[in-house]
Amino acid sequence: MNLLDAHLVPAVDGVAYGLLLFVVAAGLSLAFGTAGVLNLSHGMLYAIGAYTGAELSDGTWGGLAVGLAAGTAAAAAAGAGLSAATVPLARRGHLAQALLTFGLALIGGNLLIEFFGADELPVRVPEALDSSVTLLGHRYPAYRLCFILMAVLLAVFGTWVLTRTRVGAAVRASADDPQMLATTGHSPRAVHTGVLAAAGALAGAAGVLGAPIIGPGAGTADTVLMLSLVVVVLGGLRSLWMTFFAAIAVGEVQTLGVSLAPDWAPYLLFAAMAAVLILRSQFTEPATAGHGGGDGGSDPVEWLRRRLSASFKERGRGRGTAEADGVVRSSGRGGPLSRLPRGGPDDSTLASRGRRAAPLLILLVVLIALPALLDAYSLSLAGSALALGLLAVSVTILTGYAGLPTLGQTAPFAVGAYATANLADAGWTVGPVQIVVAAIAAALFSVVTGPAVIRARGTTVLMITLAIGELASAAINQMKSVTGGADGLVGFPPTQALWGGEGMIEEDQVYNYALVVAVVAVVATIAVLRSPAGKLLTGSRNAEARMRASGHPVGRYLFMAHIGAGALAGIGGSLMVTVQQYLSPADVGFEIAAFALLAAVIGGSTSVIGGLLGAGLIVFTRDWVASSWPGHGPLLLGALFVAAVYLLPRGLAGLRLGTGARGPAKGAELPPDHDSVPAGKVAP
C-alpha cells in the first residue's frame, strides 16, 4: 500500500499523458496509414493548437471553448495545406515527404516563435478546474482528471466516425482502393485532403487541451513528435486500441518510469521502439519486400561474375585488368546496367573517366584555394562543412548504394566525435591516431547495430535508425563522465597534424588538416564504390531477389556497407571535434541526422561529390547566411529543405543528366513496407 501511495499520482499523470499522446498519435497514424504521408511536421500542428489555446485562454469556460475551436481550426487548415504540398510528391516515396515535412516543421516552428515568443506561455484554465480534488487520499489537479475524460470522449468519437459512418467508410476505401472510391462519385483527392485536415484537427485539439500538461514552448513540437512516433510504432497501424494501449504505456514510462527507474527511463521508449521494429522485420523476407527499383533489364550476377573472372584471367596473363569478354558498368545512379564494348579502354572510355573525375578535381582546386579567399570564421565553417560532408557521404552509401535510408548516422558520428574528444583530453592529440581510433570505435558500434538495420527496408529502416540515433542521444545525456552530459566537452588540447608537431591553433592549419583527411577518405570511398565490391552492393540494391536466388550473401554485403559507412561517419565526427574544439549533444542530435540526409538527397542519391556539396550548402545556409539574419536559421534551413525537395528531385548530380532525365533518383524512393497497413483497417 505504501508503494501505491508513493506512486499513485505519477501513475495517474501517466494515464493523462498517455491519452494526450494517443490523440496526437491517432492523427499521425491517420496521416501515414490512410493518406500515405510520413508527416514529420505533426508536432508543429500540435504546437499551433497549443500556442493558439494558450493565447486565447483567459480563465473562463468561454475562453477555453474559443481557444479549442480556434486551435483546432488552425491546425486543420495547416493539415489541409500540407495535403496540397505533398500531392506533387505522391510518386516520390516517403523519403521526399519526410524531408519536405521536416522542412515545413522548421519553418512553422520559427514562425510560431517569432509570433508568440520563445518563452513558454502560461495557460489559464477555468477557475473550477484550476483546483485539486481528493483521489484515494491524495490531492490531484482537477484539470487533469477532466482532460482524461475529454480525451476518452474524443477517442470514442473518432473511433465511431472512422468505423460507423459513411465518412469513415470513404476514408477506409481511400486507403484500400482509391480507384473504386472514384467510381462511387467520391474524389480521392478530396478524401486525402480531408484526412490530413482531420489529422491536423486532432493534433490541434490535443494541443489546446494538453497545453496545461505539455505547455507551448520552443521544444514542444519535437518532444510531441518523437513520442507520437514511438506510440505509432509500438501500436502499429492495424488497431486503434493497440495505439491506445501503446500510448498509455508510453505515458507511464514518461511519468511513473522516471520515478521508479530514473536511470533507465530515457532508454526504455526508443529501445522498445527499436525492438518492435526489429521483430516485425524478422517476419518480412527482404528479397520480397522490395529493396529498390528494377534490375535494369539485365542480370547483375552474370556481369559481376564475368568481370571478376576476366579480371583474374588478365592478371594471370600480365595484361592488367582489361576484360576480354566485355565489362558491364552501372550508370552510377542506380539505373539500368549497360554493356561496354569488348577490349581495353578506348578514347571514349578515357573521356568518360575524365568527365567523371572533373567535378572532383574542380572541387579539390576550389577547396585548396579557400584559405587564401576566406576569413578565419568562414574558413572554420568550411572545415565544419567537410566534417558534415563525410557524414553525408556515409548516408549516401547507405541510402543511395545500399538502399537503406537512414536517420541514425549521427550515432556512429557521435561515437567518433566523443572518442576523439576523450583521447585529446587524455593527452592523445596526434591526428592520425585520433582518426584511426574514431573510425574503429564507430565501426564497432555499427557492427553491434548493423543486424538490426540490414533486415528492414523502406520506412522501417528510417524508424529503426531514428530509434538508434535517439538511444545514442539518451546515452550521451546520461553518461556525463564520458560525454559531459548536456554541457558537452570543451577545453581539450588541440590536435597535432603529425607526430612531434605542434598543436594546430590557426584556422588555416586546422582547415588544411581537415581537407587532407577528407580527401583521403573520399577518394578511398569512391575507389571502393567503383570496385567489384561496390558493384555487388549496387547489384544487391537493384536486383536483390536475383542476387539472393543466385546464392549471393546480400545480407553480408549490406552489413559490410553499414560498417564502412559507420567508420566514415566516425571520421567525420573526429574532424568535427578537431575543427570546433568543443562538442555538445546538439552537434550529434536529430537535426544533424536530418541535415545529413538532406545533404545526400541534394547531392544526388549516389553522388559522393554531391553529398559534399550538399553539406557545404547546408552549413552555408545554417551558419553564414543565418548570421546576417539572427534567430531565423531554422526558417532558412526549412526553406532549403522545401526547395531541395521540389527543385532537385534527382539532386545536383541529376542536373547534368539534361532534360531527358525523368523521375526521381532511386535513392529518393522508399520501397513499401509490408508492415505498413492503412489506418482505415481498424479493429476497435
From TrEMBL:
Sequence ranges of Low complexity compositional bias: 327-343
InterPro entries: ABC_transp_permease, LivM-like
Family matches, as Pfam families: BPD_transp_2
CDD domains: TM_PBP1_LivH_like (cd06582), TM_PBP1_LivM_like (cd06581)
Topology in the lipid bilayer: Multi-pass membrane protein
Top-rank taxon: Bacteria
Subcellular location, record wording: Cell membrane
Originating species: Streptomyces niveus
Location of region: Disordered: 314-351, 664-684
Record's protein name: ABC transporter permease
Keyword field: Cell membrane, Membrane, Transmembrane, Transmembrane helix
Coarse class of the protein's main subcellular location: membrane
TM stretches of this protein: 15-38, 98-118, 142-162, 190-214, 226-252, 264-283, 357-374, 381-404, 433-454, 510-529, 557-580, 592-620, 632-649
